[in-house]
Design a protein that fits this description.
Elements lengths: L2 E3 L6 E3 L1 E4 L7 H7 L4 H13 L4 E3 L8 H9 L8 E6 L14 H15 L4 E6 L8 H13 L3 E7 L3 H14 L6 E5 L11 H8 L2 E5 L35 H18 L3 H10 L4 E6 L4 H8 L8 H11 L7 H4 L11
Parallel strand pairs: 3-4, 3-10, 4-5, 5-6, 6-7, 7-8, 8-9, 9-10
Antiparallel strand pairs: 1-2
Length: 341
């Protein structure tokens, strides 16, 4: 397993991380992701560690805390062999303050996550979304306190706009608070929006991408094709979790290009799609999920080899879309404002 630095930090993380969103299966949304129990979770963790995949990602809202609990049980006795990443900010209950990035909520949710995970520290603690109701200074000073207390080691964000992240970094620099070193972001061959603003920001500010849903909500598994019905277990059946709208023809065009590259490499469609991401600037780690051992082993095959420049160019061309303003206009000034890729 290749290891990479997490943004501008000194922490090295595996190129692939394991997403524990399939652990628990509690509620209509997360039951569509998977319902892995403790026994199966231990087996998946075993396979990951054997392959050198040592980072595991979860969140407090995944199955209402059950994902964190199951992950904690699965890594029991081997805490020092793994890196734990979790997230908080989204509403956890109907209590008024059980949401957001206030001092009250972040301290409470961190303490609860530590208990569920069965650990006394979290390697990467991420804000699941931007909280415009809480002053950024309050949020960052709270994270600073948690770092100083040894309860979290690094801080990151997820689902932030570029200005959300840049404002936070500027305030962190002003007051000497910990800088965000990770941006857990959606990025795939059929969702390249990350490249427009967040990737240049990451390059400029030393923020590493932790990529989620790298197969575009299951659209790049190789099972979504022209004239074929959705697989019975596809997440696309869950209307609350179908991801951003993507034109079917665009998906088919990308899958056609993936098919060409799989014929050249002997790899599977998901492996090629994941390997493409691993070649992109700022990407520190790609979060893979798996309902079972077979899917996990398949995804682990995305590392240990590299696409050729010609194959990358083929996939780039097939997945390209018209950029929104001002990004299309900025391409006219590429002499002094070059695109990141």
């Amino acid at each position: 397993m290749e290891y990479r630095y997490l943004g501008a930090s000194g922490l090295q993380v595996p190129a692939l991380s394991f997403g524990a969103g399939t652990f628990g299966g509690k509620g209509p949304l997360f039951s569509a992701w998977g319902n892995t129990d403790v026994s199966e979770a231990r087996r998946l963790v075993d396979i990951c560690l054997d392959a050198g995949l040592t980072m595991f990602d979860t969140a407090d809202v995944y199955s209402s805390g059950e994902s964190e609990k199951i992950l904690g049980e699965a890594i029991k006795g081997r805490r020092h062999d793994v890196l734990i990443s979790t997230k908080a900010t989204f509403r956890f209950s109907d209590r008024p303050n059980d949401v957001g990035s206030s001092r009250h909520h972040l301290i409470a949710t961190c303490e609860a996550a530590l208990k569920r995970l069965g650990t006394d520290y979290i390697d990467l603690f991420q804000l699941h979304g931007f909280d415009a109701r809480t002053p950024v200074e309050e949020t960052l000073s709270t994270l600073d306190d948690l770092v100083r207390a040894g309860k979290i080691r690094y801080a990151g964000v997820s689902n932030f706009s570029g200005w959300h992240l840049m404002k936070s970094l500027a305030i962190a620099d002003r007051y000497g608070y910990p800088r965000y070193v990770a941006n857990q972001t959606y990025y795939s061959l059929i969702g390249r929006d990350y490249e427009w603003e967040l990737m240049p920001l990451g390059l400029d500010q030393g923020v590493g991408a932790v990529v989620w849903s790298p197969l575009g909500w299951g659209r790049l598994t190789g099972k979504i094709r022209r004239g074929q019905p959705l697989p019975a277990t596809s997440r696309l059946h869950a209307t609350a979790d179908s991801g951003p709208p993507v034109e079917d023809e665009h998906v088919y065009t990308v899958v056609d290009a993936l098919d060409e590259v799989t014929a050249e490499t002997g790899k599977s469609v998901p492996q090629v799609a994941l390997n493409w991401l691993l070649q992109r600037p700022t990407v520190s780690t790609v979060v893979i999920g798996a309902r079972n051992e077979e899917q996990l082993r398949q995804n682990l095959g995305a590392v240990g080899w590299s696409l050729t420049p010609e194959q990358i160019a083929k996939l780039d061309a097939a997945s390209a879309v018209t950029l929104p303003y001002p990004y299309w206009h900025q391409r006219f000034f590429a002499e002094r404002n070059p695109p990141p890729v």
